[in-house]
Inverse folding.
């Protein structure tokens, strides 16, 4: 694919963030974005790296009314020796195309999608922060843009990629977060769209998120929609329960997001001497096992959240403290192993890291 790169005069470039150690998540965007359009006649066309700017959309655009929208999230890193790296980007490409199929949107050829992300990241490499725990977050997005009010798939689409230099997703950094277990509202049902990355899932989660925030918790742990009994996932991450040297995580039931970090930890575990198990786990069992001390640690996994220790679950008006609200040994080891691979510090024996070039 030939990507047109629009030149931007030097004096129109934005000033870089001032303090890489204090980057919030997803507030700053780089100078450029990738865009590409689709229609039935031309297929995907007009791939461009252009100046980051607002779009103009018809007020009747399908995405604005019926939410025909999908997105992805992944990161680019700079290693200590100046290599620009991405972690398993082909997995995000595949997941986005799975999301596209579910919402009757056109798939993007894998090679073109990867090329677009890599070229954009390299053009914008001055924006990749280098402070510990920071990275350049990559957000590919696709929208149905055709203007109409009937309910059917759009015939026109916009695909774009934006970049944001980011620090830790949680204000707490690598410290335990407190999580609210939601037992009334639900995020997704089996057969619905909970297992793809579409904006509507996050809109559906806002009410519970607000409730959790008001009570002083940073995230929501979702239970299954039918019985409010089985643990599913957290707002922006999958969840792992540590039983000594065993990691237990709920299976991909059809209503949770198949996290790429989750899949990676399930492969890393055995390599680190940890047993791994995917099985349905009820909230009652979790509470009982926290109380008895069988659950020794809990952590969440995700691109934005990386590996986030969970220090407390709040369920039906009661607090359950995990590992005395301290970061546990297993959580720390999994975090370190994953991050060391992502930043090119540890051997990449699974072949997960793509090297894009040098800073
Ligand atoms: N679950 C939800 C709802 C998410 O938004 C995310 C973040 O992408 C995850 C899980 C973790 O997925 P991944 O590890 O692919 O980032
Ligand atoms: C991610 O981890 O990439 C996410 O999408 C989480 C959230 C910011 C929606």
């Amino acid at each position: 694919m030939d990507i047109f790169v629009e030149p931007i005069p030097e004096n129109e470039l934005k000033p870089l963030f001032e303090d890489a150690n204090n980057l919030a998540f997803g507030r700053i965007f780089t100078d450029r974005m990738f865009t590409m359009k689709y229609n039935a006649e031309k297929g995907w066309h007009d791939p461009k790296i252009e100046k980051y700017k607002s779009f103009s959309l018809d007020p009747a655009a399908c995405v604005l009314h019926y939410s025909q929208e999908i997105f992805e999230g992944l990161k680019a890193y700079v290693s200590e020796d100046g290599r620009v790296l991405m972690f398993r980007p082909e997995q995000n490409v595949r997941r986005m195309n799975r999301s596209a199929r579910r919402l009757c949107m056109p798939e993007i050829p894998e090679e073109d999608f990867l090329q677009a992300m890599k070229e954009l990241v390299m053009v914008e490499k001055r924006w990749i922060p280098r402070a510990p725990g920071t990275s350049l977050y990559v957000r590919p997005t696709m929208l149905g843009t055709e203007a109409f009010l009937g309910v059917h798939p759009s015939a026109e689409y916009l695909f774009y990629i934006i970049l944001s230099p980011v620090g830790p997703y949680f204000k707490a950094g690598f410290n335990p977060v407190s999580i609210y277990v939601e037992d009334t509202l639900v995020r997704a049902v089996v057969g619905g769209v909970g297992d793809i990355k579409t904006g509507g899932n996050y809109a559906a989660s806002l009410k519970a998120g607000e409730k959790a925030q008001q009570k002083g918790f940073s995230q929501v742990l979702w239970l299954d929609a039918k019985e409010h009994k089985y643990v599913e996932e957290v707002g922006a991450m999958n969840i792992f329960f540590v039983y000594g040297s065993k990691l237990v995580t709920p299976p991909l039931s059809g209503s949770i997001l198949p996290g790429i970090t989750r899949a990676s930890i399930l492969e890393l575990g055995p390599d680190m001497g940890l047993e791994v198990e995917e099985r349905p786990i009820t909230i009652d069992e979790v509470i009982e096992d926290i109380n008895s001390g069988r659950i020794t640690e809990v952590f969440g996994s995700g691109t934005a959240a990386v590996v986030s220790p969970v220090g407390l679950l709040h369920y039906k008006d009661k607090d359950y403290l995990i590992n005395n609200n301290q970061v546990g040994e297993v959580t720390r080891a999994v975090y370190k192993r994953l991050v060391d691979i992502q930043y090119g510090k540890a051997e990449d024996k699974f072949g997960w890291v793509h090297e894009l070039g040098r800073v």
